[in-house]
Amino acid sequence: MGLFEAILLTVVTAATPLLIAALGELVVERSGVLNLGVEGMMIVGAATGFAVAILTGSALLGVLAAVAAGMAMAALFAGLTLGLAANQVATGLALTILGLGLSGLIGRDFIGARRDPMAKIVVPYLSDIPVIGKLVFAQDPIVYASVALLAGVWWFLFRSRAGLVLRAVGESHASAHALGYSVLKIRFLAVLFGGGCAGLAGAYLSLAYTPFWSPGMTAGRGWIALAIVVFASWLPLRVAIGAYLFGGVTVLQLHAQAQGLGIPSQLMSALPYLATILVLVLISAGRRGSQAPASLGTPFVPDR
Amino acid sequence: MPPLLEARGIVKRYGALVANDHVDLTVAPAEIHALLGENGAGKSTLVKILYGLVQPGEGAIAFEGRPVALASPAQARRLGIGMVFQHFSLFEALTVAENVALSLPAETPMATIEAEVARLSAAYGLPLEPRREVWRLSVGERQRIEIVRALLQNPKLLILDEPTSVLTPQEADRLFETLERLKAEGRSVLYISHKLDEVRRLCDRATILRAGRVVAACDPRVETAASLARMMVGADVGEVRTAAHEPGAVRLAVSGLSLAAADTHGTALRDVALDVRAGEIVGIAGIAGNGQDELFAALSGERGSAAGSVVIDGSAVGAENITARRKRGAAFVPEERLGHAAAPRFTLSENTLLSGHATNGLVRGGFVDRNAVSGWLQRVIKAFDVRMSGPDPEARALSGGNLQKFVVGREILREPSLLVVAQPTWGVDAAAAATIRQALIDLAARGAAVLVISQDLDELFEISDRVAVIAGGRLSEAVPARSLTRGEVGLLMGGIHGEAAA
What we know:
Largest interface: A-B, 21 and 23 residues
Number of helices of chain B: 16
Low-confidence stretches of chain A: none
Strand content of chain B: 15-25%
Number of domains of chain B: 3
CATH class of the largest domain in chain B: Alpha Beta
Largest sheet of chain A: 2 strands, antiparallel
Distance between the termini of chain A: 65 Å
CATH architecture of the largest domain in chain B: 3-Layer(aba) Sandwich
Shape of chain B: globular
Largest sheet of chain B: 7 strands, mixed
Number of domains of chain A: 1
Structural class of chain A: mainly alpha
Strand order of the largest sheet of chain A: 1-2
CATH topology of the largest domain in chain B: Rossmann fold
Order of helices and strands of chain A: HHHHEHEHHHHHHH
CATH architecture of chain A: Orthogonal Bundle
Oligomer: heterodimer
Number of helices of chain A: 12
Structural class of chain B: alpha/beta
Helix content of chain B: 25-40%
CATH superfamily of the largest domain in chain B: P-loop containing nucleotide triphosphate hydrolases
Distance between the termini of chain B: 53 Å
Mean pLDDT of chain A: 89
Radius of gyration of chain B: 24 Å
Strand content of chain A: under 5%
Low-confidence stretches of chain B: 497-502
CATH class of chain A: Mainly Alpha
Shape of chain A: globular
Helix content of chain A: over 70%
């Protein structure tokens, strides 16, 4: 396996958790809710997923537990911000802090435990194609799931009726309410979906990316997922571009550092952020279809 | 024939406020029924109840003779009640067809919806392109979406909340034709409006609300506009006195003023020119969003422009900020009273200080002179009869009319030499509107130049000496109001330049 192929493979692993978490948050924000707790939901997912996988010996149960844990965190957020109309920014920040602490508690007894990374699904023959074979046909299930998720989110938002309603709720909750749609129920389901995605992204980190648990292992990926959603102007395909770009530049700058180019490493580490923001700003520039959902972050209180 | 809709003894309370106090309303089949009343009379609450958006505390509603409980808009629509809102309930980022789809049963395929929209727009004279995004459309087109959306439900009763307040006279005529056609098909319309002439022309019956109660039910065609107004207000509405006066020197001169749009929904100003002389009121008519916000911002100094493009009393002030312009004797009242003219959570005395700190002697050596502020506030309250609870409430605690009297009075009491005011009586009850208009006329009579930006043509014709029309960011020449007809102004509002004005 050549260096180039190896680099491409690591790009996929670096991009996948960002893609999953960002797609989840995209749906949440399209419904008009700003959940800044992605980092917290993600790391609780990582800890729970790893713990359950060790205890049961099943990666699948671990993944399911991670998704459930992310959803439970999201349900807490939804209860506060939708049910009690609490401030979304403050609640989201609190959720991240809670998640970081809670994950330490869940993972306490599993520090140092090791298990094999999740098995890859290898398609016979096709995976032997040079360069792209391993890239496309020999990945773990969560990578395939992330691609399906991308297609599914796009189809849901722009081709399905339910997605239209969700976008309408995010655009103007008062109008959607006037038409008789249940704003809070739709937002609750969207927030749960976002939590499930964040949990899945966490499970990918602790079960496939680095198959062990260490506290704080999400290392800010939740925040990057949030930023990607904004800079991708709330469009799923641009979220994918952003996630892979970020993953790609992260991996490339590591290789460049290893080559010793004489550029300060801090500057190189900043490169993925700069490149991702720059490219996404450029593709979004000057297009009107790239604005935030109009009701984003504003709580809805029905007047009855 | 039994009535189509019969509401009996509707009561709705919001805390201590009784929005609807035992309201009765009967709408016959194939009838255009007007619901009249001042702001805050309870019209909106009543129609929200009839559309299932708000639940009444007491009372019974019967539709086609059967008692019904309207628990949700979806249920009202199933019964055959449709509604077109005053503030459109449209989704700007979505297309026309998507907006329509949201109000239809989930199974309807998009292709069917587009075909239905095309059929209805042809049948009722409501031209629409199904695939356009709403933010690209004019207000009149947006209203057509709302009407088509309501018609798709095949309603027996269509409720319209102040539908013409945003339309040009021509667009309004078109709407009336559509409504007559609906009536001819046997459908009923419940029509809320402030415009009494319109109601007399269009409606078969009228129910008049005042302070939450029904005060009269009558046939508007046999009433006069004055008698209807008297029933709405409960007293004679004072006629505004205009004084003949000779205009003096030019106090505000605008020339070659161009300004980029404030945001994606705004309109850029293109080469605007205008003179306002001492002693005259110049009105600027136009449909919202045609550059009024940008013009106000350029005149007030909220946004800078080329120095020579705005001249106040001979000084080029285009690059000066709002405080510098105030010091030259200018005063400004923006359109939005809560959030722009006044800070909602500040008390009235704090709001007095906000616009008068540089000019009214309210600050001494960097410290606020509380006595001076409170004295100034008392003068405003007295001169303009601002009614409020408590000695110095927060701005948001005032009703719309009283807050408007406060923000206009705050500026007029300074005796400015130039007053620029946007929408001086928007959503204000008739009595307060008369007070404000009279104050503007008196100010001009004392030698000030007054520029009024308004969407209300009646208001402009009533108080202006000259009228100009803004459309698409261009301003027509200001011509004497007497030489203009409403039709000509309407054409200019629609953006047809030159022909009507020439």
